[in-house]
Every structure is written in C-alpha cells, then in structure tokens.
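Structure (tokenized):
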C-alpha cells in the first residue's frame, strides 16, 4: 500500500512555526475523492475545473486583499513564475471569511491583484472556505484532514499532488516561498532538464 506523505505545520509558542512530517496510510476519513473532482469559477466568470490540471501539482491558497498577509500574493506569483514551466499550478481563492478582509467584487479583486502584485496565476471568484457554505473543495479538505485542516485565516496554503491527493498544508504564518513548501513542490515536479 502506498503511503501518503503529509506535512503539518504546527505553530509553536510565540508564533514560531515548526514543521513536522507525518507518514500515514490513507486517512480513514478519506472520501475517495481527489482535488480533480472539484470545479471553481474563475474570477473572470469562466468555468475553472481542477480536472484540467490533472497530472500537475497544485498550490491552492485562500486569499484576501486587506490582510496582514496580503504581501504573500507576491510570493505566490514568484512561485508561479519559478515553477510553472515545470508544471506547478498556483490558484488563489479570494474569501471574505476572515475579518471581512475581502469585501470587494471580483472585478475589484482582480484589479487590485493585477495592479499591486502583478498576479498572473489563476484566481477564482470569491468563495466561502469555512463553515457549511464552504466551497466543496474546502469541505473535502476538512473531510480529508479533519476540522483542524480547514483554513484558520487568510493565506492558508494546500499542496495537491499530481494524483490529486493532498500532500501538504501550511498556515498563514508560513510564506509560500519558505523551504518547507518549496522542498515539497520540488519533490512533486519533474527534474530540471537542460541548462
């Protein structure tokens, strides 16, 4: 039986994040579904089925324009630019769930992200990411990881492997460019070729 490698980030005292790697067989909570079973609507209003990215790792983050972590848009864009040719897909999911820090319309969110952070990676329309009205993708995350795996604030990051299974989860305090995340991305991507 293949084991699933999961990375859990545990905030320690005084806000320091410690990384631990947990090896576990398929979760008993598992739904048998993968990320590719879900679809969003893009920020432009077009269908955004995750199945179109099958075979590629995905880094999905719930985002907000007026948060202390909003600067992480820059890091997400840097990852997208660095790894997109090797197959990584970065997806931002704007949400107003935490502190009402994403109050704008999709048009306003898109203008903000493109104008301030030159965001070029795919963004979805605004979604609930917690609670009974959460988008099915985030309800699936809670089913796979338990309620503790649900986002606790803006810019929670989830890494999905090429097979559509969850590979890692990091809270807001861990920047997208942190080695804890980039090492996992590198592990899932094909090796670099050429010069």
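Design, position by position:
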């Amino acid at each position: 039986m293949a084991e699933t490698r999961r990375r859990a980030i545990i905030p320690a005292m005084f806000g320091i994040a410690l990384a631990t790697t947990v090896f576990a067989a398929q979760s008993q909570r598992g739904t048998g579904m993968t990320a590719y079973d879900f679809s969003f609507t893009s920020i432009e209003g077009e269908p955004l089925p995750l199945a179109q990215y099958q075979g590629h790792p995905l880094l999905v983050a719930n985002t907000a324009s007026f948060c202390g972590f909003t600067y992480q848009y820059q890091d997400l864009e840097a990852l997208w630019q660095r790894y997109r040719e090797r197959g990584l897909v970065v997806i931002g999911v704007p949400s107003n769930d935490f502190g009402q820090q994403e109050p704008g319309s999709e048009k306003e969110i898109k203008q903000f992200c493109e104008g301030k952070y030159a965001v070029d990676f795919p963004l979805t329309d605004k979604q609930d990411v917690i609670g009974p009205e959460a988008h099915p993708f985030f309800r699936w995350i809670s089913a796979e990881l338990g309620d503790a795996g649900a986002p606790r604030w803006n810019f929670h990051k989830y890494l999905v492997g090429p097979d559509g299974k969850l590979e890692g989860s990091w809270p807001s305090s861990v920047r997208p460019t942190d080695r804890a995340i980039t090492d996992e991305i590198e592990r899932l991507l094909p090796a670099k070729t050429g010069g």
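Reviewer-requested clarification: Residues 1-28 have pLDDT under 50 and may be disordered. The beta strands are 4-11, 17-24, 39-41, 47-49, 58-63, 89-94, 157-160, 166-170.
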